[in-house]
Amino acid sequence: MQHDKVLILDFGSQYTQLIARRVRELNIYSEIHPFNKIPSNLEEYKAVILSGSPNSVRGEAALHPELDGIRGVKPMLAVCYGAQYLAHFSGGEVAPSNTREYGRANLSFIKTNEPFFAHIHTGSQVWMSHSDTIKKLPENGVLIASTHDVENAAYRIDGEETYAIQFHPEVYHSTDGKQLLENFLVSIAGVQQDWTPDSFVEETVEAIQEKVGGDKVVLGLSGGVDSTVAAVLLNKAIGDNLYCIFVNNGLLRKDEFESVLKQYEGMGLNVKGVDASDRFLDALKGIEDPELKRKAIGNAFIEVFDDEAHKLTDVKWLAQGTIYPDVIESVSATGGPSATIKSHHNVGGLPDFMKLKIVEPLRAIFKDEVRRVGATLGIDPELLGRHPFPGPGLGIRILGDITAEKVRILQEVDAIFINGLKSWGLYDKVWQAGAMLLPVNSVGVMGDERTYEKCVALRAVESTDGMTADWVNLPYEFLQKTSNDIINKVKGVNRVVYDISSKPPATIEWE
Ligand code: XMP
């Protein structure tokens, strides 16, 4: 890859991934590495950013990066912990803050005409989140901005291309954060803005062709964005040597299997649809515990996929839709670096398809970039804008045991809710939505008759990554119409409730 690269050293901040995403939004390629695993090919990185951290530079758990070959050699931006680290260990002083330093603050510039603050006006809102404060700048430090409560909010080091800021430019509430990153990376460090979805597609297609050659590749499609974009990229690179398998586990949304399969075929993918609904339902019979359900669904999937993969001959590769957040090795907030990489490396007993070589074309990109790449590839915007849907599907939205009849009821309810969101123009305002079938019967009255039927819960949340979420304030009129439609049209349901819990402390799914 011929792009200029930016190295982000992670000290365990909750915002480290956001830094990388903001940099990528500037069409600049960035990589996150733990602070104590500095890549050996340092010469390939044109600039370095030090992240924040939950640790204090004053404590025993202070994290000490090895900055040889970085500080004073490459342009470096130190954020929060990074800024405190430079101060504390290079002749300055860091102490606990006297006042609360969380949330909004406004910058006042000490020096005018600093290229670091080009196109940003004094008073610009920034986001603070720290409990230590820099009392004295490090050697050769030059103060360039303060806020009302934080005198040393931004400084640079004389004679170096080193900048340090106490606030977080990566968060949305720092209104000029992206401009500031652009000032540092483009104007000061001279990094090229050449990382675009088009260039990604072109390079990835070439890289796949080189890696895979004339070999056959198998890939499991889920109907979700990641596996679809991975498939279209691979298809562009190797055509019909890509064998896609799309399994119906019987727990998909109403009519989803047929309609998504048709869509895949329309995209020219070499795809086989396998309806294994009965096999999954059999595997789930009598299971009530959510984790056991997940296990049963996961195992059934592996069996079905393995059976299908065996029908193909000479397959050498397994393709996966793994994306960058799954790959990043991050520093744990509780101290020592911990590997959070998802792994399939069990010992022995692996199904044959898992012994294949792995190709993961989306390993380097974030979810929002996957969508941009998908758009570049001409994938239907409706498919790219789909809400996330869990792998175990409706299996974890039917509380208690699962039967074919319960799946049917929930599919009907879910379809009314989701189609309603679409026709009211609400679907794209919601991050994820769905319905849960509760293991509760309640009394109702329909006509002159008493009923004793099922209750469903509707859930719609806003979120950016599913880690935290809040319920969406859907219009009452919409809820009223949806509830009416569900109770009138879906036999077996006589009560609808709307879930108004945030995550945390609740979760998005009920199981
Ligand atoms: P929770 O319920 O943990 O969900 O707040 C966060 C996000 O993860 C999805 N989710 C799953 N996805 N397999 C998946 O592929 C699972 O077992 C699973 N459980 C939860 C959930 O839909 C939400 O987007």
UniProtKB/TrEMBL annotation:
Listed pathway(s): Purine metabolism; GMP biosynthesis; GMP from XMP (L-Gln route): step 1/1
GO function terms (MF aspect): ATP binding; GMP synthase activity
Pfam family, one: GMP_synt_C
Enzyme class (EC, first level): ligase
Catalysis performed (reactions): XMP + L-glutamine + ATP + H2O = GMP + L-glutamate + AMP + diphosphate + 2 H(+)
InterPro entries recorded: Class_I_gatase-like, GATASE, GMP_synth_C, GMP_synth_GATase, GMP_synthase, GMPS_ATP_PPase_dom, NAD/GMP_synthase, Rossmann-like_a/b/a_fold
Ligand binding (ATP): 222-228
Keyword Repeat: no
Gene3D superfamilies (UniProt xref): 3.30.300.10, 3.40.50.880, HUPs (3.40.50.620)
Record has Calcium as a keyword: no
List of catalytic residues: 80 (nucleophile), 168, 170
GO annotation, cellular component aspect: cytosol
Enzyme Commission code(s) on record: 6.3.5.2
Keywords noted in UniProt: ATP-binding, Glutamine amidotransferase, GMP biosynthesis, Ligase, Nucleotide-binding, Purine biosynthesis
Domain GMPS ATP-PPase per the UniProt entry, residue ranges: 195-386
Alphabetized HAMAP family for the sequence: GMP_synthase
Quaternary structure and partners: Homodimer.
Purpose: Catalyzes the synthesis of GMP from XMP.
Name listed for the protein in its UniProt record: GMP synthase [glutamine-hydrolyzing]
Gene designation: guaA
